[in-house]
Design a protein that fits this description.
Chain lengths: ~220, ~280
């Protein structure tokens, strides 16, 4: 594949099947991790932004119908979604005279939507933790295997010179490097998203009772 | 989830792009690398080798003054000469012998590659001072130097005891210690035994100049060493003690040959960081 055997790709072309398999697994991990990072980053960013704008509107306008109409604009925000679910439940209970029962049902509908939203926010994020934890070990496995093969070849060639030992160890170490390259962004992304999701969850927990009170015209 | 698949495809494309960029960067980088010129360096110049070989083949300091016949065919020399030769000897020149010869002479000097290198440099300087400017060396000159060296190695293996035994301070016939009659093979055997028991590392010495111990030992007919006399101890107590311990450890030696009769014999040795001379 390469004219020169010097360099990382020259070494990869000489690597054994196990090391190549490990590298391909790590490459797929890296691709999926980056896809999740990009997807979640855009999703959470939109969610936070829309929730912030919606909350400003919610506290400015006291008419729930207007707030509902405004919430229809925000498709990704967690708080607008939860408000919508509460409003729909409130409209369904229009003919119900017992306000205590209505409050309980609205609260239950908001709670259900909040749980659903929490699940949506956390989807795919655990995979980043998995990659962050396992990729270095998978890379290490490839390195250990490569070094084992390298030493086996040394015993076959009956030569322990640096020229005989170094290429095998070098190509084996690529697996560890690839594992770290896959794990580091995954760990950074996981920590960032965990922090962002916990912020949104705190907002949901804090403003759910406010929505119930606003829908029932309670002070 | 459609958006996620879109991101997945984008990530795969980005990875492929990054890999391609890395490959092109590697190729570009390899193309820009300028290979350094290869300079072949000869460690020992041929004129110095020829002079050095002659100089070192007899272990004497001034090799130019000694005829080649003396070097190749060592003959029993008069007592006066045998006493004086070790005095003239410069032990620091010996390490420049070929590694094989050194290995035979002194195992202690084997690991001392640094010492060997230093000695080699000293010899080069010495030769440069004394010899005329280097002349073009032909293949025949090299062959003759090699032949001399091989002959010397053979002679030192077979007759080293006799050739240098005369040089031993304690063992010189002229001093009347009675070693003249001792067979060469027996001396060689004794030297070999002591050499094996001699644990000494020349690397521990800062300076090997003048580091030679002139010792004579008295051997009883049953091989027991009855007396050890330091005719000229070295400056280094470490060297002196190592020599004493080696000789004590070697006792009893093999019984004396029958031709020696029933009387004891004296054998002299010169211990230097480079090895033992009989």
């Amino acid at each position: 594949m390469f004219d020169s055997k010097i360099g990382v790709f020259g070494l990869i072309s000489d690597a054994g099947p196990v090391v190549l398999f490990v590298l391909s697994v790590l490459l797929s991990f890296s691709i999926v991790s980056w896809a999740i990072i990009a997807f979640k980053f855009s999703y959470l960013r939109k969610s936070l932004k829309e929730s912030r704008v919606f909350l400003d509107f919610f506290f400015d306008v006291y008419n729930v119908e207007k707030v509902f109409t405004e919430s229809e604009k925000y498709k990704h925000g967690s708080l607008p979604k939860i408000f919508r679910s509460g409003y729909i439940e409130y409209k369904a209970l229009d003919d119900m005279g017992n306000s205590r029962q209505a409050k309980a049902r609205i609260a239950r509908a908001i709670k259900r939507e909040a749980n659903n939203e929490n699940k949506n926010l956390s989807t795919l994020v655990p995979f980043l933790a998995t990659v962050g934890n396992t990729a270095p070990f998978i890379g290490l496995f490839g390195t250990v295997w490569g070094i084992m093969t390298s030493f086996h070849n040394i015993s076959l060639t009956q030569s322990a010179s640096l020229a005989a030992v170094a290429p095998g160890i070098s190509e084996a170490l690529i697996a560890t490097a690839a594992g770290l390259a896959a794990a580091i962004p995954a760990v950074i992304g996981y920590n960032y998203f965990t922090q962002q999701i916990s912020t949104i969850e705190r907002d949901i927990e804090e403003f759910s009772p406010e929505f119930v009170a606003a829908l029932l015209n309670e002070p | 989830m459609k958006k996620f698949y879109l991101w997945l495809a984008l990530a795969a494309v980005a990875h492929a792009f990054a890999l391609c960029a890395a490959v092109f960067f590697q190729i570009w980088n390899a193309g820009n690398n300028v290979k350094p010129k290869i300079v072949s360096v000869t460690l020992v110049s041929l004129p110095a080798l020829a002079g050095g070989t002659q100089e070192l083949s007899d272990g004497e300091g001034d090799a130019e003054e000694i005829p080649a016949q003396v070097l190749t065919k060592p003959e029993p020399s008069p007592a006066v000469e045998t006493v004086q030769q070790p005095v003239v000897k410069e032990p620091q020149l010996q390490p420049s012998l070929s590694p094989k010869i050194l290995a035979e002479k002194s195992p202690a000097s084997q690991p001392a590659n640094n010492q060997l290198q230093k000695a080699l440099d000293r010899i080069k300087q010495h030769v440069d001072q004394k010899t005329p400017p280097p002349q073009p060396v032909s293949v025949s000159t090299l062959n003759s130097a090699l032949a001399k060296l091989q002959q010397k190695v053979k002679s030192s293996g077979a007759e080293n005891g006799g050739a240098s035994g005369g040089r031993g301070v304690g063992g010189g016939e002229g001093k009347g210690y009675g070693t003249g009659g001792t067979s060469k093979s027996y001396k060689a055997a004794v030297a070999s035994i002591i050499q094996k028991n001699w644990a000494f590392s020349g690397t521990l010495l800062k300076n090997s100049n003048g580091m030679a111990v002139y010792v004579r030992i008295n051997i009883l007919p049953d091989g027991t060493i009855s007396q050890i006399i330091f005719d000229r101890p070295a400056v280094s107590e470490y060297l002196n003690n190592s020599v004493k311990k080696a000789i004590e450890k070697s006792s009893p030696l093999p019984t004396l040959p029958k031709e020696e009769g029933s009387h004891d014999v004296w054998i002299g040795f010169v211990f230097s960081p480079e090895g033992i001379e009989k």
